[in-house]
Amino acid sequence: MKEFSQLHKARTGYQPKLPSVFLNGPKVKIINGKTGSSVADQDKIKALFPKTFGMPTIGFEANENAEFKPLNIGVILSGGQAPGGHNVIAGLYDGLKACHPNSKLYGFLGGPTGLTDNEYRELDANYIAEYRNTGGFDMIASGRTKLETAEQYEITAKNCKALGIEALVIIGGDDSNTNAAVLAEYFAQHETGISVIGVPKTIDGDLKNEMIEASFGFDTATKVYNELIGNIQRDANSAKKYWHVIKLMGRSASHITLECALRSQPNLAIISEEVEAKKQTLHEIVEELTQVVVKRSNNKENFGTLIVPEGLIEFIPEMKSLISELNDLMAANKTEINEIKDTDTKRNYILDKLQNDTATLYRSLPRQIAKQLIMERDPHGNVQVSLIETDKLLVYMIEERLEILRAEGKYNGNFKTHTHFFGYEGRCSFPSNFDADYTYALGYTASLLSENKCTGYMSSVRNLKDAAENWIPGGIPMTQMMNMERRHGKDKPVIKKALVELDDLPFKTFANNRDKWAIETSYIYSGPIQYYGPTEISEIKTITLELEHQ
């Protein structure tokens, strides 16, 4: 018999809140909204998605006469974990069963591989019960296999049909939902009778737009990181002798770093999108950081905190050019490069093929960073930035600069450091009340989209700043979020990542306060996530969400 913590037992009994349109369960009907296009490259996206391009957004309206037949749905978790994944499945199950008690939900195991290998289990009330409102993806596990070939699509359709599945729900980030969009188009063109619905998941927060106000898991993960940052900042302010350089999740956007900066008020925070907009070089960034270290030292404060997004290195224009060239080079010469086992030989092989400017930059990097830049690519053909020790690179370069200033008599302090990377710590926490409610509503919405034979849509719940009963569920065509991007050396349709907007209030609020936070010790200590107690504590939302919808 499984043993559970007291918190686990308590959380499984929590009943997530739903939007008021679901007050009578699934007694709703579909309401069509505006018809849209794609965010860019409209002609190319339309040509690639003739069946699912140009569909209207979808909303719901109460309908006491709604009736449903039994429906079998398949579900997978795709990509990295994010708090609330289990509640998507719970909401999907409850919505499905509310429509008809004879409906069935099948969970494919291990992500997309479960679809192609036909590994699944039927999910029932007893099995789901112990996972409600809990973290992790261990109910059915996840995976990063890409569905991108006709053979994979055919075997997926075959396996779904064998179980009588008429709708497939894919819970994932922008890349996973891109796969879902492609699969939906393929199924529609080949008249398989199988709908495909996506659910927006990623703690990075980069899957959002007008209709997708937040990706699930972001709220919980940033609260976990802010607790850790607060603990470190209190230690720094107590010991008064260490600089803590903290790298945070966020490969393609700095939403996590921005939220954590707004919540915890560190001395320094780098927002990648600003670095790119200003076309800053690595040395210019280091100089700015160094000057704050010197100013604080002059105030007898040889301590501080610096937080950086893991993807920073890709936003520095000169580094971005280098990485782009490396990605294409490694894709074109994959076999030859994989056969070279010696790191120095591999480095020299690559140097010979790089253009002059990028070769000079690559040669100037510390050997460990140069090595990390040519490690095996991720499944999407991109450098694995989480493995690049950006935090240590910055420390190394700041130390070098401080030694020069010391020799010039312009610095006489102590620069002792600790580096940290907060990533996995935030991916599987018990979801906050916000994420527990939000993911449950997303799953419930996905069940209604499936029941109404919608395909190529992403489950959407809007008006998130308000109370849950005022949330607005619906669906947005996934093609509306797409553009063309370079992947594996080729142009491919993908859902566009949402970056930090420098003109929006969250960044402006940070920018208006950072000079003060840099010199004054203004730390905020958030403490752990609260699941019970006063609503102003247990129902708190991210500062980002509050500011974005003022």
Relevant terms:
550 residues; alpha/beta; Rossmann fold; Arc Repressor Mutant, subunit A; 4-stranded parallel sheet; 10-stranded mixed sheet
Explained architecture:
There is one protein chain. This protein has 22 helices and 16 strands. It is an alpha/beta fold and 550 residues long. The strands form three sheets. Strands 1, 2, 3, 4, 5, 6, 7, 8, 13 and 14 form a ten-stranded mixed β-sheet that branches. Strands 10-11-9-12 form a four-stranded parallel β-sheet, sandwiched between helices. Strand 7, helix 7 and strand 8 form a beta-alpha-beta unit. The model has no long low-confidence stretch (mean pLDDT 95).
The CATH architecture of the largest domain: 3-Layer(aba) Sandwich
Q: Average pLDDT value? A: 95
Instruction: Using the coordinates shown, work out and report the CATH topology of the largest domain.
Output: Rossmann fold
* Number of helices, counting only DSSP H or I runs of 4 residues or more: 22
Describe what is shown at a glance:
With 550 residues, this protein is an alpha/beta fold.
Task: Write the SSE topology.
Layout lengths: L5 H7 L15 E8 L6 H7 L7 E7 L9 E7 L6 H15 L4 E5 L3 H6 L2 E3 L2 H5 L12 E2 L6 H13 L2 E8 L1 H16 L5 E6 L17 H22 L3 E6 L6 H10 L3 E2 L2 H7 L3 H17 L5 E6 L2 H4 L1 H16 L1 H6 L3 H11 L2 H9 L2 H7 L16 H18 L9 E6 L10 H19 L5 E6 L9 E6 L4 E6 L2 E6 L9 H15 L15 H4 L4 H6 L2
Parallel strand pairs: 3-4, 3-6, 3-7, 7-8, 8-13, 9-11, 9-12, 10-11
Antiparallel strand pairs: 1-2, 2-14, 4-5, 13-14, 15-16
Helix pairs in contact: 3-19, 8-9, 9-20, 11-18, 13-16
